[in-house]
Structures are given as C-alpha cells and as structure tokens.
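Structure (tokenized):
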C-alpha cells in the first residue's frame, strides 16, 4: 500500500522472485477494499502479499492491445497487464493499462482503440509491407527490450547498425540505408556525432522516422533542449529510459501504419 501511494498507482503486479519472473498475481484497490477489515486489524502486516492478491490474472498480448477496453469490460476489471513473448517463448510484462488510461485517451478525443491502433487498417485490407527498422545502441538492456517488442509483429524487419559506419557513409556522400524507422540510442555517442547524423537525416527527402532514446541523467540541459527541438519535426520522437514498452510499441504501430 505504501508503494501504491508513493507511485500514485492503483495496482501492483506480483512476479516470481526468480527469472523469468513470471506473473503470479495482481494487488489492486479492489483487493484493498475486500480485505480492509483484516488489514486494519493488523492480521496481515507480517504476511506475504500473496495472501491477499488476486491470483487469477487476466492479461492481453501487446500485439492485441487495441482490444484492451473490450477485455476489461468483459471481465469487469480495472487494471490489465500487457505482456509480450521473447524469441525463447518466455512471457514478460510490458506494462499495465488501467481504466484511467483508457478514459484519459477518450477525453483527449480518441476512443481507446482509435488511439492504440491509429494508422492500422482492418485485417482484411491491411498493407502487408514490411517495416524496415534499424537500431543504433550499445545498451544491451535497451537492445533486448527493443528486440523483444519488435519481434511481436511479423511486419517488422529489425537490424543493428554501427554508428561509425553510418556516419562514414553520410560524411562520404554515400546513399543512406533504406529504412523506415531508425531507433537511435544517443547515450553512448558524443553530442557532435549524434547531432551531425540527425541534421543529415533531416536533409534526406523521404528519410526514415527517428525515435531517439536516452537517459536524461546522462545529458546536459543544452542536450535535452536540442532533443526537444528535434521532436518538433513530424518524423522525430524521443523517449526517456527506462523505456515505456507500451508507448514504444504504440509508436511503432503508428509509424508502420503511416508507411502503408
């Protein structure tokens, strides 16, 4: 309860203590109300949360997140864990959607499914074109998360690109690689280098859409300001670490839909 109050969240996902940290339950405000008498009487303070959590966990796969509202209404739940599966078949938690999230998107002028699936055509008419995605990153943790999310859809073709090789090609006047989306982790590159590359991409007609990922603690105020300036361009977006995997996947879906 202290964690929920400090984080200002209405639920906590409970996972196994050992890898792959499988989901074992959820503790929500409803559980708190249901067990409030026992909790306030002091009988549960020294017991594990598994004693009062909800164990029959309902989830939605990240590739079907546009069905979240339907799943929540059908099962009369307010919090829905979103999961993805890595290449070894191991399931991981991507995030949690709440009724508050869906309502917030509705108030902003989009129904939940419109917001989450914007740019995606119906299955019968969807453009099957492969979205070519490249990643520049030295962060193994970020690479693993990106790889896991991207491989949730067969529409994406993912490759890693070496920054030095790409800068050499751009500086030498050679043709920029044929890409739809470039995911660029700027934490391990000098400001002059990532700045030069991004300015070069801006000059490319029909260049790739660029998603910058970065740790705000590793960059100066001037660099943060430059990143915000770049996001004013339609084809540039930025996401701080640790990555919000739901927002990350949604961005890929929006951009891949725009490609079709």
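Design, position by position:
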């Amino acid at each position: 309860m202290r964690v929920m109050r400090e984080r200002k969240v209405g639920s906590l996902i409970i996972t196994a203590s050992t890898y792959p940290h499988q989901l074992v339950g959820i503790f929500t405000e409803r559980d708190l109300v249901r067990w409030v008498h026992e909790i306030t009487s002091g009988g549960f303070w020294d017991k594990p949360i598994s004693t009062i959590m909800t164990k029959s966990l309902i989830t939605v796969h990240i590739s079907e997140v546009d069905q979240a509202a339907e799943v929540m209404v059908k099962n009369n739940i307010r919090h829905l864990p979103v999961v993805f599966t890595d290449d070894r078949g191991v399931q991981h938690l991507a995030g949690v959607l709440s009724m508050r999230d869906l309502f917030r998107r509705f108030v902003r002028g989009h129904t939940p499914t419109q917001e989450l699936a914007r740019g995606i055509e119906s299955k019968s008419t969807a453009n099957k074109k492969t979205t070519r995605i490249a990643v520049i990153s030295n962060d193994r943790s970020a690479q693993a998360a990106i790889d896991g999310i991207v491989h949730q859809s067969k529409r994406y073709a993912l490759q890693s690109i070496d920054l030095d090789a790409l800068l050499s090609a751009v500086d030498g006047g050679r043709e920029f690689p044929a890409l739809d989306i470039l995911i660029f982790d700027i934490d391990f590159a000098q400001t002059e280098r990532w700045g030069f590359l991004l300015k070069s991409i801006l000059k490319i007609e029909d260049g790739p859409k660029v998603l910058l990922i970065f740790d705000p603690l590793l960059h100066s105020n001037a660099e943060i300001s430059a990143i915000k300036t770049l996001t004013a361009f339609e084809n540039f977006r930025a996401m701080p670490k640790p990555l919000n995997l739901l927002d990350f996947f949604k961005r890929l879906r929006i951009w891949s839909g725009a490609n079709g």
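Reviewer-requested clarification: The first helix runs from residue 2 to 7. The radius of gyration is 21 Å.
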